[in-house]
Structures are given as structure tokens and as C-alpha cells.
């Protein structure tokens, strides 16, 4: 298992936890929960410090997610050093084919000229 795969798995787990923490939070302005009968007066679990914990955990998970994404960019496997495109390879030398110096054979189309003369 590569380092990038490990970072990818951690990013998915942290993103899922971040979504869960954000969904559990009680909106400050009432939000949609107050319009559906929530009232916004109940504290989650009856503890006043729960909102502080959820707020801090949201910031911590968001920061962790950003750091993991930046570190995973460093861990991306770039392969064995070969470049697929010669435009991106600074050491590649490309040669353009030279134009042909031999004249093209000319063909006379006598049948076309005779038919056009006979139509007149």
C-alpha cells in the first residue's frame, strides 16, 4: 500500500467525521431546525459546553483535513521519472522531417481533356 493510499484513506475518514460534527451542531440563528419545531432552546445532551467542544472539533478536523490534503500532494507517486509527453521533457530533442526536394510526378489527365472537348 502506497503512502498516497494511506493519505487518501485518512482524508476520507476525516472528511466523514467533519460532516458528522457539522451536522450535529446546533445552528446559532435557529436555522432550519427552529422552523420544523426544534425551537432551538434545547441543549445537546443538556451540557452548555457541548457547543464549545463541537466548535473546536470542527476547526481541528478542518485544519487536519487541509494538512492531509497538502501532504498527500507531496506523496503522489510520479512514476519512474519517464515523461509521457516530449513537450514536458526538457532533455528531449525532436527532429522535424525535412520537406521533400524531389518533384512530385506530374500526371496528365488526357481523358478529362478529351471529354471536355467533346462536350462542346
Automatic annotation (TrEMBL):
Subcellular location, record wording: Cell membrane
Pfam families documented for this protein: SecG
Region Disordered, annotated ranges: 81-120
One Gene Ontology molecular-function label: protein-transporting ATPase activity
Protein encoded by which gene: secG
Gene Ontology cellular component annotations, sorted alphabetically: plasma membrane
Domain of life: Bacteria
Compositional bias of kind Low complexity: 91-120
The protein, known as: Protein-export membrane protein SecG
Bilayer topology term: Multi-pass membrane protein
Coiled-coil intervals, chain numbering: none
Matches recorded under InterPro entries: SecG
Alphabetized UniProt keyword annotations: Cell membrane, Membrane, Protein transport, Translocation, Transmembrane, Transmembrane helix, Transport
Similarity remark: Belongs to the SecG family.
A single GO BP: intracellular protein transmembrane transport
Function, in words: Involved in protein export. Participates in an early event of protein translocation.
Record bears the keyword Membrane: yes
Record's keyword annotation contains Hydrolase: no
